[in-house]
Design brief:
alpha/beta; two-stranded antiparallel sheet; 10 helices; 12 strands; about 40% helix
């Protein structure tokens, strides 16, 4: 069983197509099909059901896929460790981030990292803070940037606090509140809101603030990105609350100080165990020692 055969199987499983898998792997389709057929004969089981319209994993293929991914990950890690031993950082780095990360200029950090380590392939995954914590725990993400209410802290992972910030109100330029220099939660509670999904860390900080003030609000729109929040605000459909440090990145909207605004804390977290050389190099660029526990 060869690593290249496993790569082909994974590519077909992810694209649901032998043609697209061959394009991804930069081989002709006949060669890819031949190698997968050879692997199936070796295993004594079909990995894919093929028809003229679709390709899908068989039960045997579904059982084979996770182990194949683990083998490839182990092989990639071994190659990266050998390269690191001779002074070269290579391999893959997966970084998670919330949509409103503001404490770190991540594009600039990635630019500097890329200049120093051009052989590293970088994947960015945007998600909710609580999901990113779990993915770091599981090893799917190596470093992540979070935003949490002041009542919470990343659990079960090394973490460093980066910054504290308060939320501001975001309204359309022609909204009646746009001319105000500041607004209270009580006044905002009479407006229709757009916010992140319920029970996510980005939503909880606002929900807790309104509840603590004895107020309720109407969240008519739930979206997963700050960009969509700002676009709905721009159209006058709702108002929003976003971190003050992030708000200057928005266009087409007006921001207003909230006198009793909730706060959030931004963290960087990382895997406690089995970090790749690329992950250690990225943490070092952030002035975090690889052996640090936060």
């Amino acid at each position: 069983m060869e690593l290249q055969q496993m790569r082909y199987v994974i590519a077909v499983a992810e694209t649901n197509s032998f043609t697209r898998a061959a394009e991804r792997c930069l081989v002709v389709q006949s060669a890819l099909s031949h190698q997968i057929a050879r692997l199936e004969r070796e295993l004594g089981a079909k990995l894919f059901d093929r028809t003229s319209r679709r390709v899908r994993l068989t039960p045997a293929g579904a059982a084979f896929l996770p182990a194949a991914r683990q083998c490839l990950d182990a092989a990639d890690r071994a190659a990266a460790e050998v390269a690191a031993a001779v002074g070269e950082v290579r391999g893959r780095l997966t970084v998670g981030l919330i949509p409103t990360v503001a404490a770190v200029d991540l594009p600039r950090v990635l630019r500097d990292f890329r200049q120093r380590y051009p052989s590293v392939r970088i994947s960015l995954r945007v998600g909710a803070s609580e999901d990113l914590v779990e993915q770091v725990k599981q090893g799917a993400i190596e470093v992540a940037f979070l935003g949490l209410p002041t009542t919470a802290r990343p659990d079960g992972v090394p973490a460093r606090e980066l910054a504290r910030d308060r939320l501001v109100a975001v309204v359309a330029p022609d909204h009646p509140l746009a001319a105000e220099s500041a607004v209270s939660l009580r006044r905002l509670s009479t407006e229709v809101f757009v916010d992140l999904p319920a029970r996510t860390a980005g939503r909880i900080q606002s929900d807790q603030a309104f509840t603590a003030a004895g107020l309720t609000r109407d969240v008519a729109f739930e979206v997963t990105t700050a960009y969509l929040m700002s676009r709905l605000v721009e159209q006058g459909l709702a108002v929003a609350m976003l971190p003050a440090a992030y708000a200057p990145q928005l266009t087409g909207v007006t921001t207003i100080e909230v006198t009793d605004a909730p706060a959030r804390v931004e963290y960087v977290i990382w895997s406690r165990f089995d970090r790749t050389p690329a992950a250690n190099a990225f943490l070092a660029l952030l002035d975090i020692a690889p052996g640090s526990v936060g």
